[in-house]
Structure formats: structure tokens, C-alpha cells
Give the backbone structure.
Amino acid sequence: MDKQILSGITVLDLTRVFCGPYCTMWLGDMGAKIIKIEQPNVGDDTRMWGPTQNGASAFFANLNRNKYGVTLNLKSPEGKEMFLKMVEQADVVVENYRPGVMKKMGLNYEELRKVNPRIIYASASGFGTYGPYSDQPGYDIVAQAMSGIMSLTGHKGGPPTRVGSSIADASSGINLVVGILAALYAREHTGEGQEIEIALVDSVVGLTTVENMRYFATGKVAERNGNHYALLSPYGSYRGKDKDFIIGCGNQKLYELLCNNVLKRPELITDPRFLTVVDRAANDDEMQIEVEKWSTTVTAKEAIELLHANGIPAGPLNDTSDVVVDEHIAGAREMFPEVEHPIVGKLKGTAVPIKFSDTPTTIRKPSPLLGEDNAAIYGEMLGLDEVQLAQLKEKKII
């Protein structure tokens, strides 16, 4: 692709670990030019994280594809000056330092907009840049705990449980992408950039919209409900002859199709316990008993085929090994593209899930080695030659 949806947008990426690199990975897949700026001789923490493949971090390689890599000591006056010259030519700066770090270096939004009023400055942190918790460090598990989502996750009677995926980091990265895209659109009208900030804890609170609404409406705190949903039934996992599978009856029509055509028990439609969506949700345990009188007599595959034949949402409980070979997800939807990395070798990653009709996302280059693009980027943006680069390296600025 010569043209992608973010072609022509330059992003200076000061992020590390997961949330920030996930954001800039999305932007890079959409065609933006991502320049990842790392500390000389150290780099992103995750360069040392497992799992490794051929001695290199697969974690880092996946999250930092489609990025150019340079090193720069931002604490040095000369390094700061180089960065500001790059800001003059950039569209977006993304960082996920603790609040106050960039201000201490004189590189916060108020300073950057002096050299480029069009710059969009996006930051992510555990608790945001203001509020009583703003100076506290935050990781994904802390955000999950404090947001309330762990209190909702787990089996009935069991302890609060972390959601298996790092959803605070991932959702915050996506929220950063949304904010950046909206700010780029706004800039087309105002001619000026703006500051965007995301807090991990806010992002996960945003994911609990329904549960918060229930509390505001009823005053009741949601309880852990395993694989079932407090507002709908039958809607969850059910036992098959061989293994569990999912049924999702989200409305009355689907429930009646289930009773008539699958369970062959039309009397359940008029059963006082199950008359309405609200009634079924209130009597979900009893509903599960009735459904499993049928489901335990068939295999999960047989059950799913019958449910699909009647237009009822259903699916298998896949693990990762199932997902990565699924004919729809991995095949038709191409959710696991492959890239060739100079050290890692062939590496599969997870695609950005947005499908553009005219400007599809692509992986154009693997993640950079530390400082791999110093000569190309500093030559292009700052006009530095080999001698000047060697001097900067000797002074440990790059």
C-alpha cells in the first residue's frame, strides 16, 4: 500500500511496556510513521521480557512492529534540543511516563506547543494527571482491582479474579488511539493540536458501564456470576456431553426458538419462572438446570450446529490453540499476520481488528533493533551526518 489512512502522520513514540506501544502499534498499522525513541544502551523494558524466540523478546517484537527505532538521552541539553527539533516536524507525541516526569524535563505539552502549535500530545498513566491518586504508580492489575472489574469476575462464591488479558493496558491503548484520531480531526478545523490524557483506571471503569448503571438504578452491587450474565438468561456456558459451550439468548424470540426447536419443551415459554427476560435472569440457576437436561445429552459440536440451524447465537469455548487456527478468525479474518524479524525470524502477531475497505492496515516492517534507525531518522529530520552521529554516540546522547 502506497497510501494508508494515516499516511503522512509522524508520531514521536516515547512509550514503553504495553499500553503506549499498543497504541502506537495501531497507529503504525494504519500507516503513520512511528519513531520509537528509547534510552541509549537500555531501551524499552520489554526488550528483556519473555517469551523469547531466537534470543529476542517476542513480546517487544509484536508490540513494536511498523516502527523506526532511535536512541536519545532526553535528560541531556543536546538531546532535549534534538527532540524539540523533531517535534517541530511531528504531528503527535505519545508518552506513558509517570505524571510530572515530562514537565520536569521541560518537555510537557505547554513547552512542546511553543515550538509546534499543531502538536497533539497524548499521555497515559495509572491514575491520570490530576486527582488525589495522580502521583501513584499504576499497573494493569492495580487498575483492574480499583476499577471494580475484579469484583465482577469469577465464579459464584469465589474470590475476585483478574481478567485473564491485560485489559487495562489494552483498553487504555485503544482509548489513546481514539483520542489521537479525534484530535487529528479537530486539528483540521482549528489548525491547532491539543493534549489528551488517559488513565488506566478510567479505561477499565469505562468497561463496567452496565454494572455501574445497575448500581445507580437499584443500589445493588453486582455479584460474581461466573460465565453467566446478570441481565439475560439463558446466556452463558452450558455442559455438553463432552465439554462446555456457549448459548446466547438475548431476547424473547431467541428464547422461544430455543424452547420450541432445540429443547423441544414449549411449556418452558409459559413457565412463570421464565416468562420474561427479567424473570429468567432472576431464576438463572433454575434456567440452567432446564437447559442442561438437553445439553448434557449431546456433544458441544452437535449442540452448536443445532443452535445455529435455528438462528440462536452459540459457540465453542476456545483456548488460544483453537483461536489461532480457526478458519474464520485466523483464516478469513486474517487476525494473525506474519512478519519476518532479523533475529526472531518468522513471527506471528495479532492484527488491528478494524477493517478498512480502501486503506487496509498492514505490517510493513518488523520491530527495530535498539537505535537501528539513528542514521536514517536523524539524517532525514535533523540533517546530521556520520561524523556528527559518531560524536553524539561518544557523548552518550544517542
The longest strand covers residues 33-38. The mean pLDDT is 96. The radius of gyration is 25 Å. DSSP finds 19 helices and 13 strands in the chain.
